[in-house]
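Researcher: Going back to the complex we discussed earlier. I've cleaned up the inputs and rechecked each line, so this should be the final set. Can you rerun the prediction on the complete assembly and write out the structure?
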Amino acid sequence: MNPARFHLAILRSAALLVPEAQRTDWLAEWRSELWHVRRDPHGVNVTAFCMGAFRDAFWLWRDDPSPERYAPFVESPARCLSWLAAIGAFCFVVALLLPAARHGLLYSQFPGNLVLLTSPDRNSSSISRERFEALKAHYDGQFTGLVFCAPVRMPVDTPRGKRMLSVARSTRELFRLLKIRVARGNSGTPVLVLADNRWDLPAGVDAWLIEDASAIAALPAHTEGFALGRLRYTSLRDKQFHFVRIAERSFELLPSLAIVLPMGMLLAILTSDLPGSHPLRVGPRRGLFLAAKILLVLPIVLFGSLDLASLGSSVSPVVLDIVFFGSLFAARWILADQCKRCPVCLRLLANPVRMGEPSRILLEWHGTELMCLRGHGLLYVPEWPAIWSGRQRWMDLGPSWDGFFP
Amino acid sequence: MLHRYNAGMATELKLSHTAAMILKAIEAGHVYGFGVMEVTGLPSGTVYPAMRRLERDSLIRSRWEKQSIADAEQRPPRKYYTLTASGRTTLEAAEKRYPLLAKLMPAIVGPEA
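Model: Rerun complete. Updated structure for the full complex:
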């Protein structure tokens, strides 16, 4: 990239942080300075100079006392809760539409009832096809699906040449059992499906060969293989066979999220510097509003993170990190939002006004004053914490002020 | 009761050494950001936000150079900074606190001033 364009791109990116009213002037000043820096005979590091623009822009962004840009959406408590509910519903619908996210959500409905049937009198977990037919007749009705698969080693043509692969011969019923969709081949044509190691099946198969039931039934009676079934009920005891539950390596999403999500929120609350008595002044309405916000933000974090992590073919384990940091951010937003609301009507405070001059701090207060537009009171937020004004404080306005407010 | 602010009460100003250096550099005739950077040795990420803060506190003020002057020299117009009366008072107080400030920042003579 052309260095001049690169430096200008840095400045333009930083300018996005600058409040809109000052942006044009700010960018013009930095572009003008850049022009001179480039021609400086002392060889100044131009990129380092441009990177300083971010600090400058960030300072202006922090210093801007203008009202929050999202205020119209969340100004009243009812509108705030409605928006949160709408965003949560949207994230949920997206989660249902994304196949990986949907699987992650629904997985908990069928955990751990996939079993491998083995004979107690044998060291190996395999059984013969003849014995499989016998157990199938014996356990009729106890399983929602019962299939036989026979691993064989066979040469397969691959892009890297002919290779010997361990292939499990079975029927399409196997994939219905595992709840995996497999593309249909031509009727009667065997389909080779490469294993993705999501199921910890014995014999370490490389691929599955789906054949007609008649082809499997035609295997010699002594052919060794594995019997897989999905239990209709949670348990089944029998002396003739052992049932070994198969560890489905599918990411156990909901239990993990149930731990990480509150952890993130708790950490955010514990590390937050709750500013003053006003946000902690919990009345019944404020408490209910806070609880409702938490309840509505939880599904946003949960489903939103799931959506982001499910853009690929499966739910990425990164979802835990996204949920953790998402819950931190969400908890901090909940607290910050609570701090900016009138404790009486729960509407967002408005008309921020900077008071005092920060350079003159000796026993003098300076910071931002916000007002409830319904005249319930004023909130003072100090700019720098000091021993006499360390935290924000709320001042109720008496009835004598009513005439000033509509 | 609305918040009371009495500017007259706070005549003793508390400037950091960095802010005092920048104020002194401007007083010495380094009247734009890059000039202040060069003479103080401070990076751009320190100088510009500090100048914004000083301007917000009315210790310095800025003005854009006339377009005609910049056009004549075939360069973009620059934003210049000058001390306000309050800024001069503050700088005098800062020089008492930081006696080496004047020696660190010699006044410049030339077109920049």
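Model: Worth noting: Residues 16-100 of chain B form a domain with the Arc Repressor Mutant, subunit A fold (CATH 1.10.10.10).
Researcher: Good, that matches what I expected from the previous run.
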